[in-house]
Amino acid sequence: MSRHICWWWSVALDHAQGRPPRDRADVVRPGEGAPTVTWLREPRTRWLSVLDGLTESDLDATAPFPWPEDPRYTVAPMVASVNTELTRNVSEIGRLRLLRAASAVRPPH
After folding, report:
1. Counting beta carbons within 10 angstroms of the beta carbon of residue 18, is it exposed (0 to 12), middle (13 to 18) or buried (19 or more)?
2. Which pTM value belongs to this model?
3. Collapsed DSSP state (helix, strand, coil) of residue 63
4. pLDDT digits over 8-48, tens only?
5. Buried-most residue among 18, 85, 97, 109 (CB within 10 A)?
6. In the beta sheet, which residues pair with residue 74?
């Protein structure tokens, strides 16, 4: 799941920053635990920087992702879509962590 998050978040960042989007195969997950947490912090920092730099006219511009060149969709809904997807992914990770913790606790006999 973390590989998917970093990949699509990186693609959204590439589009938002006017760069060619990276290929899915170019994203390599570093492994379990702390390395992945560290790895996920980089797109977070970049995303916050992009959001901080957006102006009103930027938000009104046609979205480059995920609806390229469709003037019905602007950068504002793109930002909302990315943030919503992140919220959903974090919620799924939280549920998996709760399930893992619950399975480690055995009821007393």
Report:
1. exposed
2. 0.78
3. coil
4. 888 889 888 888 988 888 887 777 888 888 888 888 899 99
5. 85
6. 62
